[in-house]
Design a protein that fits this description.
This protein has helices spanning 2-23, 45-59, 193-204, 222-232, 253-266, 297-308; strands spanning 32-36, 42-44, 64-69, 76-77, 84-92, 103-111, 133-139, 143-148, 154-159, 164-169, 180-182, 215-216, 235-238, 270-272, 292-295. With 309 residues, it is α+β, with helices and mostly antiparallel strands. The strands form three sheets. It has an eight-stranded mixed beta sheet, sandwiched between helices. A five-stranded mixed beta sheet has the order 12-11-13-15-14, sandwiched between helices. The termini are far apart. The structure holds 1,6-di-O-phosphono-beta-D-fructofuranose and magnesium ion (2 copies). InterPro entries: FBPase_C_dom, FBPase_class-1, FBPase_N, FBPtase, Fructose_bisphosphatase_AS.
Length: 309
């Protein structure tokens, strides 16, 4: 029951963000701030606004012991008696805020170990297999929620008259096969050989070893690309690239890769780093990055076969 109340609280925050996003230039929420986050990224105004909305509503809820956020250097202690930890990306797809394109909020919830102090970051270092609930809200033409509490992945649509997220698709099943891939091709020269070969064969299409044509999409917002994959199948990749071996990918494990992997697996898809299941990665720090390959089961298996070759 408490988890449901926590989810309701979190979604009330997302409704507020949805409203602020929809106001756009009218409310002066577009553009950048002068500050940088711990990732070294210039924060957008909506990054800061969304982060503050979620931080306030979760810390006042009483259910949450601590939170970790893309926009917070360290974990934020909340209620010492709280039973849950929440990790979130308050505004995903920041580079899309000023072009009125798809953006969203991503979150994952785990139990708070009773032994921990509320400001102890090590409590967040739990593998994704420990997630009790995860989801995203996509702020698109309609605001949509994808949610799983470990019993399938379900889609809800925000009814702006009624004010609630209403169930619009139960038990999403990602098609096992696909002809659609998503990757930022401008990073090609930095990819490892397995990815070079795999993408090369997709692009070769019916003239190549795959014997069929593939189409490419890139929303530049993980929440948008994953929603498309959940809706009609596909493979989404942000793989390891050689530019900075210390940073094995762009996407963050706790509040991007893990929640999306949880949703994808609950919908019958697969989620891998290229070398193992994302949900089994043992985190070492809260802003850790990982390579991400997820989507339609058979297509991800085919991609992983290039790593074995
Ligand atoms: O700029 P690129 O290489 O296209 O990267 C896009 C990726 O970066 C992200 O925008 C990173 O997330 P944030 O916007 O929350 O920092 C992902 O949503 C998206 O998949
Ligand atoms: Mg993000
Ligand atoms: Mg973000």
């Amino acid at each position: 029951m408490e988890l449901i109340l926590l989810l309701r609280t979190l979604l009330a925050g997302c409704k507020e963000i949805s409203f602020r996003v929809s106001q756009g230039a009218l409310a002066g929420v577009l553009g950048s701030t002068l500050s940088e986050n711990v990732q070294g990224e210039t924060q957008k105004k909506l990054d800061v606004i969304s982060n503050q909305i979620l931080k306030d509503i979760l810390s006042e809820s009483g259910y949450v012991k601590a939170i970790s956020s893309e926009e917070e250097d360290d974990v934020v202690a909340c209620n010492p008696n709280g039973n849950y930890l929440v990790s979130f990306d308050p505004l995903d797809g920041s580079s899309n805020t000023d072009i009125n394109s798809l953006i969203g909020t991503i979150f994952s919830i785990t139990h708070a170990p009773q032994w921990m102090d509320a400001d102890d970051p090590s409590a967040f270092l739990q593998p994704g297999t420990q997630i009790v609930a995860a989801g995203y809200v996509l702020y698109g033409p309609s605001a949509m929620l994808a949610l799983s509490t470990g019993r399938g992945t379900h889609l809800y649509t925000l009814d702006k008259t009624h004010g609630g997220f209403l169930l619009t698709q139960k038990d999403v099943q990602v098609p096992k096969q696909t002809s659609e891939f998503a990757i930022n091709a401008s990073n090609q020269r930095h990819w490892e050989d397995p990815v070079q070969n795999y993408i090369g064969d997709l692009i070769a299409g019916e003239d190549g070893p795959r014997g069929k044509d593939f189409n490419m999409r890139w929303v530049a917002a993980m929440v948008g690309d994953i929603h498309r994959v959940l809706s009609r199948g596909g493979i989404f990749m942000y793989p390891f690239d050689k530019r900075n071996p210390e940073m094995p990918g762009k996407l963050r494990l706790l509040y991007e890769a893990n929640p999306m992997a949880f949703l994808m697996e609950q919908a019958g898809g697969l989620a891998s780093t290229g070398h193992g299941r994302i949900l089994e990665v043992m985190p070492t720090e809260i802003h850790q990055r990982v390579p991400v390959i997820l989507g339609s089961k058979e297509e991800v298996e085919t991609c992983l076969s290039y790593y074995k070759a």
